[in-house]
Specification:
Elements lengths: L6 H10 L5 H13 L6 H13 L4 E5 L5 H9 L4 E6 L2 H13 L6 E5 L2 H4 L7 E6 L6 H11 E10 L18 H16 L3 E6 L5 E6 L1
Parallel strand pairs: 1-2, 1-4, 2-3, 4-5
Antiparallel strand pairs: 5-7, 6-7
Helix pairs in contact: 3-4
Subunit structure: Homodimer.
EC number: 2.1.1.-
Function: Catalyzes the methylation of 5-hydroxyuridine (ho5U) to form 5-methoxyuridine (mo5U) at position 34 in tRNAs.
Protein backbone atom coordinates (compact mmCIF):
# COMPACT_ATOMS: atom_id res chain seq x y z
CA UNK A 1 0.00 0.00 0.00
CA UNK A 2 2.73 2.49 0.99
CA UNK A 3 0.60 5.57 1.64
CA UNK A 4 -2.26 5.44 4.16
CA UNK A 5 -3.60 8.82 2.98
CA UNK A 6 -4.80 9.64 -0.52
CA UNK A 7 -1.69 10.80 -2.38
CA UNK A 8 -3.35 13.95 -3.72
CA UNK A 9 -4.43 15.00 -0.22
CA UNK A 10 -1.00 14.22 1.19
CA UNK A 11 0.68 16.22 -1.58
CA UNK A 12 -1.67 19.17 -1.01
CA UNK A 13 -1.02 19.20 2.75
CA UNK A 14 2.74 19.01 2.28
CA UNK A 15 2.72 21.78 -0.35
CA UNK A 16 0.69 24.14 1.82
CA UNK A 17 2.98 23.72 4.83
CA UNK A 18 5.73 26.34 5.33
CA UNK A 19 8.91 24.83 3.89
CA UNK A 20 11.88 24.27 6.17
CA UNK A 21 15.15 26.02 5.39
CA UNK A 22 18.73 26.01 6.63
CA UNK A 23 19.88 23.06 8.71
CA UNK A 24 16.42 21.49 8.94
CA UNK A 25 16.12 21.46 5.15
CA UNK A 26 19.61 19.96 4.91
CA UNK A 27 18.54 17.28 7.39
CA UNK A 28 15.44 16.48 5.33
CA UNK A 29 17.57 16.16 2.20
CA UNK A 30 20.10 13.96 4.01
CA UNK A 31 17.34 11.69 5.36
CA UNK A 32 15.77 11.31 1.91
CA UNK A 33 19.07 10.59 0.20
CA UNK A 34 20.28 8.11 2.82
CA UNK A 35 16.93 6.44 3.58
CA UNK A 36 16.94 7.60 7.19
CA UNK A 37 13.41 7.60 8.65
CA UNK A 38 12.39 10.98 10.06
CA UNK A 39 8.91 12.31 10.76
CA UNK A 40 6.93 13.36 7.70
CA UNK A 41 6.35 17.13 7.28
CA UNK A 42 2.69 16.97 8.29
CA UNK A 43 3.56 14.92 11.37
CA UNK A 44 6.33 17.37 12.27
CA UNK A 45 3.76 20.18 12.19
CA UNK A 46 1.37 18.13 14.32
CA UNK A 47 4.15 17.64 16.89
CA UNK A 48 4.75 21.40 16.97
CA UNK A 49 1.05 22.07 17.59
CA UNK A 50 0.75 19.42 20.33
CA UNK A 51 3.90 20.74 22.01
CA UNK A 52 2.54 24.28 22.08
CA UNK A 53 -1.03 23.36 23.08
CA UNK A 54 0.30 21.26 25.96
CA UNK A 55 2.68 24.09 27.02
CA UNK A 56 5.38 21.43 26.97
CA UNK A 57 8.64 22.04 28.84
CA UNK A 58 10.09 18.51 28.88
CA UNK A 59 10.13 15.86 26.16
CA UNK A 60 11.37 12.28 26.20
CA UNK A 61 11.97 10.80 22.76
CA UNK A 62 12.65 7.16 21.91
CA UNK A 63 14.40 7.05 18.53
CA UNK A 64 16.63 10.03 17.79
CA UNK A 65 17.83 9.12 14.28
CA UNK A 66 19.61 12.28 13.02
CA UNK A 67 18.00 14.55 15.63
CA UNK A 68 15.32 16.04 13.38
CA UNK A 69 12.28 15.61 15.61
CA UNK A 70 14.24 16.48 18.77
CA UNK A 71 15.05 19.81 17.14
CA UNK A 72 11.41 20.26 16.07
CA UNK A 73 10.28 19.78 19.67
CA UNK A 74 12.92 22.15 21.06
CA UNK A 75 12.09 24.91 18.63
CA UNK A 76 8.40 24.57 19.51
CA UNK A 77 9.10 24.95 23.24
CA UNK A 78 10.10 27.96 25.26
CA UNK A 79 13.28 27.05 27.17
CA UNK A 80 12.30 23.38 27.13
CA UNK A 81 14.46 20.27 27.41
CA UNK A 82 14.57 17.08 25.35
CA UNK A 83 16.08 13.74 26.31
CA UNK A 84 16.36 11.46 23.28
CA UNK A 85 17.42 7.80 23.19
CA UNK A 86 19.11 6.20 20.18
CA UNK A 87 20.78 2.79 19.97
CA UNK A 88 22.73 3.30 16.74
CA UNK A 89 26.09 4.94 17.40
CA UNK A 90 26.34 6.34 13.85
CA UNK A 91 22.98 8.10 14.25
CA UNK A 92 23.98 9.41 17.69
CA UNK A 93 27.10 11.01 16.22
CA UNK A 94 25.17 12.66 13.37
CA UNK A 95 22.39 13.82 15.69
CA UNK A 96 24.79 15.41 18.14
CA UNK A 97 26.53 17.27 15.32
CA UNK A 98 23.23 18.57 13.98
CA UNK A 99 22.12 19.62 17.45
CA UNK A 100 25.38 21.45 18.04
CA UNK A 101 25.14 23.25 14.69
CA UNK A 102 21.63 24.40 15.69
CA UNK A 103 23.01 25.73 18.98
CA UNK A 104 20.75 23.42 21.00
CA UNK A 105 23.22 21.14 22.82
CA UNK A 106 22.24 22.66 26.18
CA UNK A 107 18.60 21.78 25.57
CA UNK A 108 18.85 18.36 23.90
CA UNK A 109 20.57 15.38 25.49
CA UNK A 110 21.10 12.32 23.31
CA UNK A 111 21.61 9.08 25.22
CA UNK A 112 23.12 6.15 23.34
CA UNK A 113 21.75 2.71 24.14
CA UNK A 114 18.72 0.42 24.12
CA UNK A 115 15.56 2.19 25.21
CA UNK A 116 14.16 -0.79 27.13
CA UNK A 117 17.28 -0.68 29.33
CA UNK A 118 17.56 3.11 29.65
CA UNK A 119 13.91 4.03 30.25
CA UNK A 120 13.64 2.35 33.69
CA UNK A 121 16.75 4.27 34.87
CA UNK A 122 15.43 7.75 34.06
CA UNK A 123 14.28 10.10 36.81
CA UNK A 124 11.57 12.75 36.87
CA UNK A 125 8.41 13.19 34.82
CA UNK A 126 7.91 14.42 31.27
CA UNK A 127 5.18 16.57 29.70
CA UNK A 128 5.41 14.69 26.40
CA UNK A 129 6.85 11.34 25.34
CA UNK A 130 7.41 10.49 21.68
CA UNK A 131 7.86 6.89 20.53
CA UNK A 132 9.49 6.69 17.11
CA UNK A 133 11.82 3.70 17.28
CA UNK A 134 11.60 0.02 16.28
CA UNK A 135 7.90 -0.52 15.56
CA UNK A 136 7.80 -4.04 16.94
CA UNK A 137 9.18 -2.92 20.30
CA UNK A 138 6.64 -0.30 21.40
CA UNK A 139 5.08 -2.60 24.01
CA UNK A 140 8.50 -2.94 25.65
CA UNK A 141 8.70 0.84 26.02
CA UNK A 142 5.14 1.43 27.19
CA UNK A 143 5.18 0.61 30.90
CA UNK A 144 8.20 2.80 31.61
CA UNK A 145 6.83 5.53 29.33
CA UNK A 146 3.54 5.71 31.24
CA UNK A 147 5.42 5.84 34.54
CA UNK A 148 7.61 8.68 33.26
CA UNK A 149 4.69 10.68 31.86
CA UNK A 150 3.12 13.40 33.99
CA UNK A 151 -0.61 13.28 34.67
CA UNK A 152 -2.10 15.41 31.93
CA UNK A 153 0.90 14.58 29.75
CA UNK A 154 0.84 13.36 26.15
CA UNK A 155 2.22 10.15 24.68
CA UNK A 156 2.68 10.27 20.89
CA UNK A 157 3.36 7.02 19.03
CA UNK A 158 4.45 7.34 15.40
CA UNK A 159 4.12 4.97 12.42
CA UNK A 160 1.43 2.93 14.13
CA UNK A 161 -0.47 2.02 10.95
CA UNK A 162 2.76 0.91 9.29
CA UNK A 163 2.01 1.48 5.58
CA UNK A 164 -1.57 0.30 6.10
CA UNK A 165 -0.48 -3.20 7.10
CA UNK A 166 -1.81 -2.81 10.64
CA UNK A 167 -5.27 -1.94 9.33
CA UNK A 168 -5.70 -4.81 6.89
CA UNK A 169 -4.12 -8.19 6.17
CA UNK A 170 -4.54 -7.33 2.49
CA UNK A 171 -1.45 -5.12 2.73
CA UNK A 172 0.72 -7.27 4.99
CA UNK A 173 4.11 -8.29 3.63
CA UNK A 174 5.07 -11.74 4.90
CA UNK A 175 8.37 -10.64 6.45
CA UNK A 176 6.54 -7.92 8.40
CA UNK A 177 3.90 -10.16 10.00
CA UNK A 178 5.53 -10.16 13.46
CA UNK A 179 5.85 -6.37 13.53
CA UNK A 180 2.22 -5.97 12.41
CA UNK A 181 0.92 -8.37 15.08
CA UNK A 182 2.90 -6.54 17.76
CA UNK A 183 1.67 -3.15 16.64
CA UNK A 184 -1.94 -4.32 16.62
CA UNK A 185 -1.47 -5.58 20.17
CA UNK A 186 0.10 -2.25 21.16
CA UNK A 187 -2.75 -0.20 19.70
CA UNK A 188 -5.41 -2.37 21.31
CA UNK A 189 -3.59 -2.02 24.63
CA UNK A 190 -3.29 1.78 24.61
CA UNK A 191 -6.86 2.18 23.35
CA UNK A 192 -8.15 0.30 26.40
CA UNK A 193 -5.54 1.28 29.00
CA UNK A 194 -7.27 2.74 32.11
CA UNK A 195 -4.71 5.53 32.47
CA UNK A 196 -4.86 6.66 28.84
CA UNK A 197 -7.34 8.31 26.52
CA UNK A 198 -6.12 7.61 22.98
CA UNK A 199 -6.97 8.81 19.50
CA UNK A 200 -5.61 7.16 16.37
CA UNK A 201 -5.03 9.60 13.51
CA UNK A 202 -4.45 8.60 9.85
CA UNK A 203 -1.72 11.11 9.17
CA UNK A 204 1.79 10.34 7.92
CA UNK A 205 2.16 6.63 8.61
CA UNK A 206 -0.36 6.71 11.45
CA UNK A 207 -0.07 8.59 14.74
CA UNK A 208 -1.57 7.60 18.09
CA UNK A 209 -2.02 10.45 20.59
CA UNK A 210 -2.63 9.39 24.20
CA UNK A 211 -3.54 11.64 27.13
CA UNK A 212 -2.59 10.43 30.62
CA UNK A 213 -5.68 10.77 32.78
Amino acid sequence: MGNIVNELIEEYIRNILPQKDGILKDMEDYALKNHVPIVQPEVAKLLEVITQINQTKSVLEVGTAIGYSAIIFTKAMENGKVISIEKRSDMVEIARKNIEIMGLKDQIQVIEGCAEEILPTLQGKFDLIFLDAAKGQYMKFLSSSINLLKKGGILVSDNVLYKGMVASNEYVVRRKITIVKRMRKYLDYIMHHPELTTSLIPIGDGVAISYKN
